[in-house]
Amino acid sequence: MLATAGNESALALPPFRGLSEDDIEEWLSRFEKYVTYRGFPNSAKLNLLAVLLRDGAGDWLDTLDNATKNDWALMREAFRQRTYCSGNKQIPYGIARKVPRRALNNI
């Protein structure tokens, strides 16, 4: 029996807010270890990721097309690249989150 059995809060993942001081690679590494431990299929990984992305990161998620949102490999790569997709153009997330969404739609 695992030492954490019955104490899932010890393994709970913190939300990811997409702040400039957030370490995406560190958070994603912890996320991937957790979902591997839990044996989650890709669909469950996508669902959990959607729940854990908050604030600016949640806003970023809302900008992605459905093909990316429904494919774990595409989502993981988009998350690592932190890109905001506007039509066929990609804008680094750090810049995109400082610009109103309607302005990005006109690019």
**Structure summary, number of beta strands:** 2
Shape: globular
What can be said about the biggest beta sheet?
Answer: 2 strands, antiparallel
Radius of gyration: 15 Å
SS element count, helices: 7
Q: Walk across the major sheet and give the strand order.
A: 1-2
List keywords for this structure.
107 residues; mainly alpha; two-stranded antiparallel sheet; 7 helices; 2 strands; 54% helix
Which helices and strands occur, and which strands form pairs?
Layout lengths: L23 H15 L3 H11 L2 H9 L2 H4 L2 H10 L1 E4 L2 E4 H4 L4 H5 L2
Antiparallel strand pairs: 1-2
What's this model, at a glance?
This protein is mainly alpha-helical. The protein has helices at residues 24-38, 42-52, 55-63, 66-69, 72-81, 93-96, 101-105; strands at 83-86, 89-92. The protein has a two-stranded antiparallel sheet with strand order 1-2.
